[in-house]
Amino acid sequence: MRRFVFAAFVLLQTIAFGQGKMQAEDLQYLASDQWKGELTYLDYSSNEQVAIPVEMTAEALNDRTFVFSYHYPSEPKADNKVQLKVNGSFSKISGNPIISRKVLPDGSVEIVTKRKGKDNKQKAWMHYIYVFGPNTFSLTSEVEYMDGSPLFIRSKFSFKR
Prior knowledge:
Blueprint: H1 2-17, E1 35-43, E2 48-62, E3 65-71, E4 80-85, E5 92-93, E6 96-103, E7 109-119, E8 122-132, E9 136-145, E10 152-160
Antiparallel strand pairs: 1-2, 1-10, 2-3, 3-4, 5-6, 6-7, 7-8, 8-9, 9-10
């Protein structure tokens, strides 16, 4: 009986806390070739999804910090750089706690983070879904307003090399 209780305790700890970390190998595909794809986002003025082409280069500053340089060929004034930083224990990305990690059937790794924030002047939970693969990378931003409204996709970067 004691072994069963101990095994159940270990299993619960793994389920509760094991999902909240990523592995160093999850980042191995980022810093390399030029990535090309599109950004799809919800335009609040028209309430329509808009898609624009985007190119990205991910530069590794070290094994846990990357700078994403975004170039929008049709809107060069929107070009920008964003830093992605993983903390020392691999439990946060850019300060946001990792709430899940799973390996997808194609071998890609999906990591989800979540934080409180604001979207369209409303308090919300912000969900960020990263998918790292050998030839694909995506980052989806989902919004869940705290008034009980359903979760929706605010934006999605989808890249291939």
